[in-house]
Structure formats: C-alpha cells, structure tokens
Specification:
Layout: E1 2-4, H1 6-13, E2 19-25, H2 31-41, E3 46-49, H3 51-57, E4 66-70, H4 78-82, E5 91-96, H5 101-113, E6 118-122, H6 131-136, E7 146-149, H7 152-161, E8 165-175, E9 185-190, H8 198-203, E10 206-209, H9 221-236
Parallel strand pairs: 2-3, 5-6, 5-9, 6-7, 8-9, 8-10
Antiparallel strand pairs: 1-4, 2-4
C-alpha cells in the first residue's frame, strides 16, 4: 500500500505497521525533517529523491514531499473491536453502503477522534480501506480498528448478543438529542443515496434523526456521523 502526505505518513510511522521504505524529497525541512527523524528511530529505509520523482509516483501529486510504502491494510475481526470496550461500554460505527472513499475516510477520522472502538464495513457495496482512504482520514485509518464482514445483519445479531443497542441514523427517526446513547452502542450510517438499508434498519433498536433547520433536507454521511458521534461523546461523559 502506498501512503502519501505528511500527516498520513507521520501517523503510519507512529504505528507498528510494516513499512518497506519511505521516499522523501531532498533536503527535508519542517515536518518532513521530523518524519525523517522518526523513521530513523524505527530503522525504516528512507530514499531521498527529487520532487519530480515523487510527482511521477504520486497518483494526484498530493504527496507533500513524502510517500511511504507499507504492507496492505490489515482488517481486524469483530471480536477484536468488542475486546476494546471500556468501563463506559462499547462504541462502534457501522457503515452500511458507504461507497465513496472520501466519506469512508472522513468517517474513520471521526471515529478515531471520537474514541470509537472500531468501524465495521461490509464486504460488498462498500468502499474499502485504500491508500486514498488512509490519506483522506489524515492517517486515522492507521489507528482505528476496521472490520470487514460478509453480512452486516448477522454482525448486528452478534452485537446484540454482546449487549449492544443499535441506532440507525435516518431522516424520519426520533430526535437524536433525546436519545440516551450510553452503554454499549453502535451507530449505523448509510450511503447518501440509499441511506440505511431496510433490513438493516429493521434490525436496529432505534432510528435517530438530526434536526435540520435549513432548506436542504439532508447532510453528507460523514458530517451526519460526526454530529451523531459527538452527541454520543457528550452523553457518555
């Protein structure tokens, strides 16, 4: 996997990921110099090249002077996420049909910042954790546990058996500010076009909505998840 950008590479180095090498522009300054110092501490091979070489290897020239090559992203199991539950209960994000890499990257970033135990995505009809997702997440994908499952509905059954309450985020539900959101919870966010799928929604315990005061009748999926996740953080403090 190729990781581009200063934040994404810096966060990657901070993990135990297997990094094959880092390509960096010559005479690094500022944050690039700090990345080089951290790479040396981990004995990661750094290759200094001209910026035009980085441009050639970059997909969209957003490398910011550094590209890292690491092993492919390793998904975890649902059990791995469940094992991270703290005293206040578990906090999980479920993506149902998030196909846009920008949305998935942003959702993973929100999950990491909000202290979620992990993110669950389906194998089909979903974006995967790619190089672009890692970059868009600003490196958060290197820290968040992400599980990829064959069936979201079977996974919901597993979560319920583990004591979780499932909350689908949709337009016609109960006001989210009236919800409890404490204990073991999982927030389910759907794709922008289809929302949470009918069978998945029927399996959830509650449907929650974010009040909209303007003329636009919907929010971007990652924005909606951000609002919901931090309302959960507020309630759980």
């Amino acid at each position: 996997m190729k990781i581009e950008g200063r934040n994404a590479v810096s966060e990657l180095i901070a993990t135990s990921a297997n990094i094959e090498k880092i390509m960096m522009e010559k005479d690094p300054q500022g944050s690039l110099k700090a990345i080089f110092a951290e790479a040396r501490k981990r004995n990661i091979r750094v290759q200094f090249v001209d910026r035009k070489v980085l441009d050639r290897y970059s997909d969209d020239k957003r490398h910011q002077g550094v590209i890292a090559y690491a092993a492919d992203y390793e998904y975890c199991s649902v059990d791995d996420i469940l094992s991270r539950r703290g005293e206040d209960g578990g906090f999980i994000i479920i993506c149902d049909g998030i196909e846009d890499v920008h949305n998935l990257g942003s959702i993973i970033r929100v999950a990491e910042c909000a202290g979620a135990d992990g993110v669950i995505i389906p194998t089909n009809n979903s974006a995967s954790v790619t190089e672009a997702v890692v970059r868009i997440s600003a490196g958060a994908a290197n820290h968040v546990k992400v599980a990829k499952v064959n069936s979201l509905n079977k996974t919901i059954d597993i979560l319920k058996e583990a004591g979780f309450w499932l909350y689908a985020l949709e337009a016609d539900g109960t006001d989210i500010y009236e919800a409890d959101l404490k204990g073991n919870i999982a927030l389910v966010i759907g794709g922008e076009d289809s929302g949470v799928k009918r069978l998945t929604r029927e399996k959830c315990d509650f449907t929650l909505s974010i009040p909209l005061k303007g003329k636009v009748n919907s929010l971007n999926a990652s924005v909606a998840l951000g609002i919901a996740a931090y309302e959960a953080v507020r309630k759980r403090r």
